[in-house]
Design a protein that fits this description.
The complex is a heterotrimer of chains A (about 325), B (about 325) and C (about 500). Chain A contains 13 helices and four strands. By secondary structure, chain A is mainly alpha-helical. A two-stranded antiparallel sheet of chain A has the order 1-4. A two-stranded antiparallel ribbon of chain A has the order 2-3. Chain B is about 70% helix and about 0% strand. Classes of the chains: A mainly alpha (about 325), B mainly alpha (about 325), C alpha/beta (about 500).
Chain lengths: ~325, ~325, ~500
């Protein structure tokens, strides 16, 4: 008898609307997997030699650099920031490696620790970018864009004119070796993925990154040291860029500043196509793995079909535009600048 | 009321000083650097070198004027350089087929490229750095495809079309006059039109600008449009100056143009900036570059120096009073 | 009754530039009771909650908690003293699980060697949820996959946990409009939980616009009006009508609102809506606005009046119904399209929504209409200055010069600049959204005269008043909204102004 009615029709309408949005978001969540399946099927049909064991190995090989880059970038984008420093920084770390192992330019022979040194450099530069972004309140895209230019300058400076060729037998050993048919370099990149997965899901850090991207004010009010987390993210991104620079240097055994070129673009494509939104707080490393796979197989398929490399990079641009346009929140009135 | 107005005055004073600081520093460093370079190398101030500097400065200045509009919205245009490269290549190729009409076609191309950037950003709501990063990649690819990835020389039959470049007025070359005129036009747009006012307003406070009833999309698209035109004019200047269409000629100028605008006082937080002042930034950058060439410093230093300059200039222009500002 | 005093506030005052949000508020809360806070919008409830939570600091006055001085600088400090709050807007992190959200910021317990033991976290979270009879919510689900109302329950659960964790015998929990998105069953569940935790000795402050709910759950009710605590009643001795009366208090004299200047609206219909609606916000709104008329819209926060306003000025799109301007059906994509049809709004949040702080006074005045100050399409500085000078004289804008940046003006003067812009825009339909918010008393009167003069000039105004009194005093006609629908429409011509109590009845 005493059944009081609390809710009004308009509140029910509101609840219904929210439910609809939740449902829609769920579907969109799985879209990247669908896209991957679609391209896989399409390329199997039209690209000659796509469906072969040899080609799968090639794909795994091609996956390594974008995957590592993507893992770093994912965290940055989850924050709602960007890191464009990969081009210069990746090149610099690559150059550094070739100059530290046995090479044509100098008498260094550090062996494997050379990798570590180069990666640490990436880490340090990441910290520097993060510091300037956070403390100077300068938008991250601007900071990292400038840092990229600075680091390419240092990269060229490191070898002055003629790039160093690495002569270390260690490198050939690494490039030719494999476990269970998976090349060492790909294994390394998968390890980075595992680390990223762990960071995101099983540490406080991962939860805080998500929180800052979703709602920075809430994170701050809960006592999270937002600035420190942001800097840590840029350090992690620097680490990943360092690793990817080292991997590319090992692969071509040549320390050219161009090593970092055309790595940032596919990485951003992969993150966005995978469903991590540029506004932050949504998506994650698994999404990015799917994204990296999509980007890699498309690129691989286009190579197999004999498409010009310039057209390939232009196509990548078109893909990002479409992916971002599909993923942005159309209801928002004020858009990200 | 009185106690607030007292503190308000203090804030005003500090704002004023920090606002002009970067400009004052820029002007001072132009003077100092010129003196340093003269001391190191007396040839620096020779009239031929001055003409050279003005000539080198013109494409950069033009591009800086364009990108200043975009930065004022607190957006960014990363496609500037490749639009310029593409324009240079197109001009060279089109001279052979349609003659001087190529100038117009290339400028129309620049307009279109700018419009595309603006529309991607506004209608598809893609953040500007992503949208222009994509178009940057696209136009760079187009330039490389047209040229076959190598510099295209202008052949003797088309030389009459570029004869005018050699005109000088005293030490001032005609290319510099052209950039000056474009700057003048852009200044008028910024200061004297509704669109220009809207850009400043929306850089500062987009929600307010929207509710005031300003046409936000139009202003954003116009900014990218003007940036596109400037980039294509820059490309034309590169091509006629070098008598060839080099498919990567604009690449390094992207950062330099942004640096020039930032040194001229445009703040990335929006709402602040003056097209006129880009001359200071562009002048400073070219003097550094030229000075480095004259005293034979390696080229890679330039990237390092300009990268650092961007950071410093933007840091100085940023409004550090706004504690609550969330910067992504 | 042998109860312990848990929390006291003595003479709390909060001043904002130009206004007093709280005046000399004192209160005592006992352990184990539920205290309802009621009052109109802007009566000071939210400010008080913010001060208790440490989001704001009082200008004057002291608080104690458990008998010791209590002056939190941040919400975390408040949490540590056993004070927690559920905000109106949800503060959960969408992409984390329910458990991660409940333990957000206190992962230490579950971290060993940098590894987060999520399973244990989820187990503990499930136990907490069970304690609150929320067994149906799984702790390992992501928040983004939950229903909106369920999220609200998780949020409440999180706050309960945060304060309990402080280890104190009795804690204080602030609930700010917690029921607005909940379904019937969930409201009942929430009430049960409130009773459970108060039985344990905790105290709850319950803020709601729904008086029936306040009457049902609270033991005592504190009534706020204009930043002052006007009364404190035991729920047993109160009913809705008593509360209404206390909330509205006495009416300001008609002359304060320049009622003698009120004009009879002209015949022309400027704006009309037919069954206008926006899904989830309001529906079936029919209104007509005549030339020279001031149409007041009353309603509590969440009644849909703000959303109606946003639709009228083109900021949002309606999902149903029609909007007619001078008899013609219109659809606006953006406020700019509305302005072309002569509709301009004066937004609520001045600093965020209506001034360009770094632009000068004259530039701000010119923003909505460049036609006035342009020659052959180019802006003339001279005309711009002349226009600004004109309005400065007319509206008594106190600025050191016309080049002064608007960001440095006081609230009242900045608002006058906004009005000057509205006048210069030539728009004849003005949407006034809290036009006197954050404005000092002197400037308020000037703005009232201004609004009257707008009506005299034949402009039509839709008014969302800062207080109900203001809304009644200024308007020719009133619409009352509740839960997204118009519940009453009444005349408010001079000498025939309705009593506030009669209006409030339809609002809550």
């Amino acid at each position: 008898m005493e059944k009081k009615q609390y809710t009004s029709p308009i509140a029910e309408e509101f609840a219904y609307e929210m439910r609809r949005q939740t449902r829609k978001a769920k579907i969109i969540n799985y879209a990247p997997v669908g896209v991957l399946a679609f391209f896989f099927a399409l390329l199997s049909a039209i690209a000659p030699g796509f469906l072969s064991l040899y080609n799968f190995r090639t794909i795994l090989n091609q996956l390594s650099v974008p995957l590592v880059m993507t893992m770093g970038l994912t965290f940055v984008i989850l924050l709602g920031c960007t890191d464009l420093s990969g081009e210069g920084l990746g090149g610099f770390c690559g150059c550094l490696v070739t100059l530290l192992v046995i090479n044509t330019k100098n008498a260094n022979d550090f062996g494997a620790p050379a990798f570590l040194i180069a990666i640490c450099c990436g880490l340090a530069v990441g910290l520097f970018s993060g510091f300037i972004h956070v403390k100077g309140k300068i938008p991250s895209f601007m900071v990292t864009y400038a840092i990229s230019s600075i680091m390419s300058g240092f990269a060229v400076m490191s070898y002055r004119g003629q790039p160093a060729m690495a002569k270390d037998p260690l490198l050939t050993k690494i490039t030719s070796g494999s476990v269970l048919g998976i090349p060492y370099l790909t294994v390394a990149s998968l390890l980075v993925f595992v680390a990223a997965f762990f960071l995101q899901n099983y540490t406080r850090f991962g939860a805080y990154v998500m929180a800052i991207g979703d709602n920075e004010a809430v994170a701050r009010n809960t006592g999270v040291n937002v600035d420190r987390i942001k800097m840590k993210v840029f350090i992690w991104a620097g680490f990943c860029i360092g690793v990817s620079g080292v991997i590319s240097a090992i692969r071509v055994a040549r320390g050219d500043v161009g090593l970092g070129k055309d790595t940032v673009f596919p990485a951003i494509t992969a993150v966005v196509v995978g469903g991590t939104t540029l506004t932050g707080g949504k998506g994650g490393v698994v999404n990015s793995l799917v994204g990296a796979l999509i980007v890699t197989i498309i690129n691989n398929g286009l190579i197999l079909m004999g498409v010009n490399m310039y057209i390939r990079s232009a196509l990548q641009g078109v893909i990002i535009i479409i992916a971002v346009a599909l993923s942005v929140n159309r209801g928002k009135k004020v858009i990200v600048k | 009321m009185n106690e607030t107005s007292g503190s308000v005055l203090d804030i005003l004073k500090s704002m004023l000083s920090s606002e002009n600081l970067s400009k004052i520093l820029s002007v001072a460093s132009i003077v100092v650097l010129s003196l340093v370079f003269v001391a190191i190398n007396p040839r620096f101030m020779v009239s031929r070198n001055i003409t050279n500097i003005l000539n080198d400065m013109s494409p950069l200045w033009v591009m800086a004027c364009g990108v200043a509009f975009v930065l004022m919205l607190s957006s960014i245009d990363l496609s500037l350089g490749s639009i310029a490269s593409c324009s240079a290549v197109m001009l060279t190729v089109l001279f052979n087929s349609i003659g001087p009409g190529a100038y117009i076609v290339v400028i129309i191309y620049g307009m279109l490229a700018g419009l595309i950037n603006g529309m991607l950003h506004t209608y598809l709501k893609i953040p500007s750095f992503i949208a222009t990063l994509c178009t940057q990649s696209i136009w760079q690819s187009v330039a490389l495809l047209i040229s076959g990835a190598k510099p295209l020389p202008m052949l003797p039959p088309v030389w009459p079309y570029i004869e005018w470049v050699k005109i000088t007025f005293g030490v001032v070359p005609i290319l510099f006059i052209i950039s000056f005129l474009l700057m003048l036009l852009y200044t008028v747009i910024q200061k004297k039109t509704k669109v220009g006012r809207t850009m400043l307003a929306l850089g500062e406070n987009e929600s307010a600008a929207r509710l005031i009833g300003l046409n936000i999309n139009q202003a954003k698209i116009t900014a990218f449009f003007l940036s596109g035109i400037a980039a294509s004019v820059g490309g034309i200047i590169f091509a006629v100056k070098l008598k060839s269409g080099i498919p990567t000629v604009g690449a390094q100028y992207n950062l330099m143009a942004i640096a020039s605008a930032a040194l001229g006082g445009v703040a990335l937080s929006g709402g602040k900036g003056d097209i006129l002042m880009t001359i200071i930034g562009a002048g400073l950058i070219i003097i550094i570059q030229n000075g480095m060439n004259v005293i034979a410093v390696d080229g890679y230093w330039q990237q390092i120096v300009f990268g650092a300059l961007v950071l410093i200039a933007i840091y100085m222009n940023a409004d550090h009073n706004r504690r609550d500002l969330v910067v992504k | 009754m042998g109860k312990n005093i848990l929390f006291t506030a003595r003479n709390i005052t909060k001043k904002y530039p130009g206004t007093m949000a709280l005046k000399d508020v004192s209160a005592e809360l006992f352990s184990g009771e539920v205290v309802g806070l009621v009052g109109e919008n802007g009566a000071g409830k939210s400010t008080l909650l913010k001060i208790i939570m440490g989001n704001e600091q009082p200008t004057e006055g002291v608080m104690t908690m458990h008998g010791i001085p209590f002056a939190p600088k941040t919400p975390i400090e408040a949490n540590n003293m056993g004070v927690g709050m559920v905000f109106q807007e949800q503060s959960l992190i969408q992409n984390l699980t329910v458990g991660q959200n409940i333990f957000f910021g206190m992962e230490d317990k579950y971290t060993r060697f940098c590894v987060l033991n999520k399973r244990k976290m989820h187990e503990d979270a499930s136990r907490i949820l069970e304690d609150m009879r929320l067994n149906h919510i799984r702790a390992d689900r992501k928040v983004s996959s939950l229903e909106f109302a369920t999220r609200q329950m998780v949020e409440i659960c999180k706050v309960f946990h945060v304060v309990k964790r402080s280890g104190l015998d009795s804690c204080l929990i602030l609930l700010d409009e917690p029921t607005s998105v909940l379904s019937d069953g969930e409201v009942r569940n929430l009430f049960e939980n409130i009773r459970l935790i108060t039985a344990e000795g905790h105290t709850v402050i319950f803020v709601s616009h729904r008086l029936d709910e306040v009457l049902e759950i609270s033991d005592r009710i504190i009534v706020f009006k204009d930043g002052e605590k006007v009364d404190e009643v035991l729920t047993a001795e109160a009913d809705e009508s008593i509360l209404y009366e206390k909330m509205v208090g006495r009416t300001a004299s008609g002359e304060y609102y320049k009622v003698s200047d009120q004009v009879e609206p002209g015949g022309e219909v400027l704006l009309e809506t037919r069954d206008l609606g926006r899904r989830g916000y309001f529906r079936n709104v029919n209104l007509t606005l005549h030339a020279g008329e001031i149409l007041g819209i009353c309603g509590v926060v969440g009644s849909g009046k703000e959303d109606l306003c946003a639709v009228l000025c083109g900021d949002e799109s309606p999902t149903s119904g029609q909007l007619l301007v001078r008899g013609e059906g219109k659809k606006f994509g953006a406020p700019q399209a509305a302005l072309k049809n002569g509709i301009l709004s004066i937004p609520k949040e001045r600093r965020e929504e209506s001034i360009i702080a770094s632009a000068s006074v004259s530039e701000n005045i010119a923003m909505s209409n460049f036609g006035n100050i342009s020659k052959i399409g180019l802006i003339s500085k001279k005309l711009e200055k002349a226009q600004a000078e004109n309005y400065r004289g007319k509206m008594h804008i106190r600025a050191s010069s016309l080049d002064q940046k608007v960001g440095f003006l006081s609230g009242g003067n900045a608002q006058k600049v906004v009005f000057a812009r509205a006048l210069a825009s030539d728009a004849d339909i003005l949407i006034l959204n809290h036009p006197t918010r954050g404005v000092d008393v002197g400037a308020k009167e000037e703005i009232y005269s201004l609004i009257r003069s707008l009506a005299v000039q034949g402009k039509g105004c839709v008014l969302l008043g800062d207080t109900l009194d203001e809304c009644i005093g200024l308007s020719n006609r009133l619409l009352v909204m509740k839960d997204g629908e118009v519940t009453r429409e009444c005349d408010a011509s001079p000498g025939n102004k309705p009593e506030q109590v009669d209006i409030v009845k339809y609002m809550m």
